[in-house]
Design goal:
The protein has one domain. It starts with a helix and ends in an 11-residue tail after the last strand. The chain is of the alpha+beta class. The protein contains eight helices and eleven strands. It has a four-stranded mixed beta sheet with strand order 3-4-6-5. A three-stranded mixed beta sheet has the order 9-11-10. The radius of gyration is 19 Å and the shape is globular.
Length: about 220
């Protein structure tokens, strides 16, 4: 009876969500969307644009909760109470760098600040686009653990993400000595080839040879090459 009235929402077999009365007649309730995400996959880690928002690096209010998981899902997206959940399957070796947080004493996992920035550089398309990632990097450089970021980069075998990330950190103008050393270290470890700053956009724009990256997004050009 409660389910028919909308007071209980079935998330998956054996897992139900109690919908509070203040959700309104259409039962559109997303206050605990990260907790709901934790129940939809095993494992489940809130990531990409959702994590950027969680760390207050953007003012965007995403309509989608992005969830990293190693689980193979029959559907890559699911709509619950007006919120879309998108599942991004990653290899077990790439599901690291997350922490447990809580909403009303209910736990969920979210990528930590360092892994959030790496993931965003790897998949700008899931992170609000490169302009949002640039803005996030400008906020993040004040808060990062540079030694932890360095260790994470050694575990993340994707050269394109590293090139974008180093460019973004340098563009943010961070003068932290640990950040400067990290930039110097990774500048000497770059993989061959030129990558696009914004994947999926046309191959055009100036190349920053220092980071082997093509600035194919207007407004992000640099004078030094």
């Amino acid at each position: 009876m409660a389910a028919r009235k909308g007071l209980v929402k079935r998330l998956k077999r054996g897992v139900y969500l109690l919908v509070p009365l203040e959700a309104g007649p259409e039962r559109q309730w997303s206050e605990a969307s990260f907790v709901i995400a934790a129940a939809l996959a095993e494992p489940a880690v809130v990531a990409y644009l959702s994590a950027i928002r969680y760390w207050n690096w953007t003012e965007q209010l995403p309509g989608t909760v992005y969830v990293q998981t190693t689980q193979r899902k029959s559907k890559t997206a699911q709509d619950i109470l007006g919120v879309r959940y998108r599942f991004v399957r990653v290899s077990p070796s790439r599901l690291f760098g997350y922490m447990e947080e809580h909403v009303d004493n209910q736990p969920f996992n979210v990528t930590d600040k360092e892994k959030t920035l790496i993931d965003s550089a790897d998949r700008p398309d899931l992170s609000g686009g490169i302009v949002t990632v640039v803005q996030a990097a400008e906020e993040a450089v004040r808060e990062l653990d540079w030694h932890l970021l360095d260790r994470y980069l050694q575990r993340f075998p994707r050269g394109a993400a590293i090139k974008r990330l180093m460019f973004l950190i340098e563009k943010a103008g961070c003068d932290n000595p640990d950040a400067v050393r990290l930039l110097e270290r990774w500048q000497s470890r770059l993989t061959a080839g030129i990558v696009l700053l914004e994947p999926g956009l046309p191959v055009r724009g100036p190349i920053v040879t220092r980071w082997r990256i093509r600035l194919n997004v207007a407004g992000l050009e640099r004078t030094e090459k």
